[in-house]
Amino acid sequence: MEKQVFERCDGSQVTESMLQEASQLFTDHYGIWSEHATQLVGEFAKARNQIRLSKQRLRTDYLPDGSTCSYVRVTVDGNLAGNVFACRWMYHNKTVCWVTQLVVHQDYREHGLATGLLNQLRHYDDDIYGLMSSHPAACLAAARSFGSSINTIRLKFIEDHAEEIMKASPIRYVKEAKLRGNLFHAEDSSGLVSSADTGFWVDHTEPLEALGWVRDTVDWPLGELHDGHEFLLVLEGRRRIRSRSQPTSRPKATP
Question: Distance from first CA to last CA of the chain, Å, rounded?
Answer without folding.
Answer: 48
